[in-house]
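Handoff note, outgoing to incoming analyst
You'll be picking up this chain. Sequence as last confirmed:
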Amino acid sequence: MPSLFRRPLLIRLLRSLAILVLAWLVVSWLLVLLLRFVPPWTSAVMLERQTGAWLRGEQDFHLRQHWVPWGQISPYVPLAMVAGEDQKFPYHHGFDFDSIQNAMDAADEGKRLRGASTISQQTAKNLFLWNGRSLVRKGLEAYFTVLIELTWPKQRILEMYVNIAEMGDGIYGVGAACDAYFHTPPARLSPAQAARLAAVLPSPRRLHADRPSAYVLRRAGWIQQQMEQLGGPSYIEGHAPPRLPR
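Most recent structure output, in case you need it:
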C-alpha cells in the first residue's frame, strides 16, 4: 500500500519539475526576444558590481552607463571589438570551437589558461549571469548564448555588447567610456580611439584607455592593424565577400 501512495507522489513531483523547466525555458526565451528590440535598463554584471561596491562601503563609487543606438556609434567601435576579441564573429553561431580546442590543448601542456569566449558568450554572461568559472555558470552561459544567436541578428549582439561591456571601473558601454575618456560622442570615435577601448577589455579596471600603458598602446596598435586587414567596417556590416580571417 505505501508504494501505491509513493508512485502518484513521484509522478506529481516529476510533473511539477517538468512544468518548472518549461516555464524557465519560455520565460528566458521571451526575455531574450524582448531584448532584441528594447535596451536593457541594466545588466547582471552591472548589478553585481554595484552590489559589491555597496557591501564594501565604496561610497565614492558611481556606476556610469547609458545606451547608445547602433546608428550613433562609430563603425570602428564594433570592428575594434571583433578584431581584438573574436575575429570569427560574423561566421560562427556563438561558439568558436577551434579556440576552445586550442585553449584546452594549452591547458593540457601546462600553459596559462586562455579565454576562448566569443562576443556572443560574453554578451550572454554580461547581460544575464555573474562572474566566475563554475560549471553551472558556464552551462547557463552556453544556454543563453544559443538563445541569443537564434533570436538576435549579429548586429544586435554587437550593439548590446558595446553598450554593456565593462570599459573601466564602473564604466560600462561605449557611451560612458566616450564621456570619461575622450569627451566626444561615440559617433565621432576614430579607429585609434576605438582600438584603445578594445585594448583595455581584458582587464578594464587595471588598464586605461585615456592613460594607456605601453601594453595598451602595443595592443591597440595590433588591433588597429587587424581592423585594416579585416577590410574595415564592411567586415561586420556584411558588405565584404565572406572570408575567414587568417
